[in-house]
Amino acid sequence: MSNGNEDLDHLIALMAKLPGLGPRSARRAVLHLIKKRSLVLLPLADAMHKVGSTVRECLNCGNVCTADICDICLSEKRRTGQICVVEDVADLWAMERSAVFHGRYHVLGGTLSALDAVGPDELRIPKLLDRITAEDITEVILALGATIDGQTTAHYIADQLPDVTVTSLAQGVPVGGELDYLDDGTITAALNARKAL
Amino acid sequence: MSNGNEDLDHLIALMAKLPGLGPRSARRAVLHLIKKRSLVLLPLADAMHKVGSTVRECLNCGNVCTADICDICLSEKRRTGQICVVEDVADLWAMERSAVFHGRYHVLGGTLSALDAVGPDELRIPKLLDRITAEDITEVILALGATIDGQTTAHYIADQLPDVTVTSLAQGVPVGGELDYLDDGTITAALNARKAL
């Protein structure tokens, strides 16, 4: 892949490392960036540099942020007493987009996994236990994935927790989902958790 | 789309403007970048800044480069006497990847188009005529797209050219192509241009 220019080749090679982009789409993206140099390329370079030099993990919850404590932990508008435990930052963002949870979060940074040798100390579980006491938490919502590892982690955490209410997300038919396309496990879960109309 | 952090939101919004990325894949890409801050994010920001502050069009051929004249025009290894005319820089890169053409290029910057009001002076056609005299060109290869606009442009250029050999890319069955999936026009062109084995 030579365009006869080192700087451009280097930029294309770096862009091709992004998830969702390969060499071909990286070339397209770079040509697009060059055409929109002042509108996109330079602002994007600046935004990346700014994020790259300031981004870190919130010391309290593990969210990514550009200060020691993230905006959600600092916000006085968030309801105290509730912590929503998620696997990673992408899950926290997904919860925030639904804008239905108004408490604070705790990002584990993964799930317990015997295969990958991830134990409780590799995750942010000790810090979660500290926070429950320090922040007067009354309810812990375990919003972990409905995978084997996610559910194992949820059970482990539920066992460790002191005297607080522990809940987890409901399982069932996704909104807009058609029964025909759902797996047996989801239908079983949805039937077992059926509600009176 | 709020992650509770302005800098991150800004970066995601800019990434989502890239071709091939939407809001969801931009978020994924940004999380990936944050995780690989020193390996990808900061080098990418630097590479973008470098390209953004130096990239321009080659004054001779219209290729993108980081100097006034591009490496291909400057290279002494390129065969003189041949110019390959392409629509845009992406086409030049595609030709270079096939590594089969060893002459120099001329990037038109588009095609003639009555609908979009693109006339000869909007393209780099006058400069092409200048170069044919100045660089002692004996063959002009018109490597334009097999579209209506591309072929109109090719005919227009062929009419303007002084006494040089004018060729265009062959049309036919693409390598790896199956007849079953080809359109009528391609099969007609391939049959008309059939070769003795």
UniProtKB/TrEMBL annotation, chains A, B:
<comment type="similarity">
    <text>Belongs to the RecR family.</text>
</comment>
<keyword id="KW-0863">Zinc-finger</keyword>
<protein>
    <recommendedName>
        <fullName>Recombination protein RecR</fullName>
    </recommendedName>
</protein>
<dbReference type="InterPro" id="IPR000093">
    <property type="entry name" value="DNA_Rcmb_RecR"/>
</dbReference>
<keyword id="KW-0233">DNA recombination</keyword>
<keyword id="KW-0227">DNA damage</keyword>
<keyword id="KW-0862">Zinc</keyword>
<dbReference type="GO" id="GO:0003677">
    <property type="term" value="F:DNA binding"/>
</dbReference>
<dbReference type="GO" id="GO:0006310">
    <property type="term" value="P:DNA recombination"/>
</dbReference>
<dbReference type="Pfam" id="PF21176">
    <property type="entry name" value="RecR_HhH"/>
</dbReference>
<feature type="zinc finger region" description="C4-type">
    <location>
        <begin position="58"/>
        <end position="73"/>
    </location>
</feature>
<dbReference type="InterPro" id="IPR034137">
    <property type="entry name" value="TOPRIM_RecR"/>
</dbReference>
<feature type="domain" description="Toprim">
    <location>
        <begin position="81"/>
        <end position="174"/>
    </location>
</feature>
<dbReference type="InterPro" id="IPR006171">
    <property type="entry name" value="TOPRIM_dom"/>
</dbReference>
<dbReference type="GO" id="GO:0006281">
    <property type="term" value="P:DNA repair"/>
</dbReference>
<dbReference type="GO" id="GO:0008270">
    <property type="term" value="F:zinc ion binding"/>
</dbReference>
<keyword id="KW-0234">DNA repair</keyword>
<dbReference type="InterPro" id="IPR023627">
    <property type="entry name" value="Rcmb_RecR"/>
</dbReference>
<dbReference type="Pfam" id="PF21175">
    <property type="entry name" value="RecR_C"/>
</dbReference>
<dbReference type="Pfam" id="PF13662">
    <property type="entry name" value="Toprim_4"/>
</dbReference>
<comment type="function">
    <text>May play a role in DNA repair. It seems to be involved in an RecBC-independent recombinational process of DNA repair. It may act with RecF and RecO.</text>
</comment>
<keyword id="KW-0479">Metal-binding</keyword>
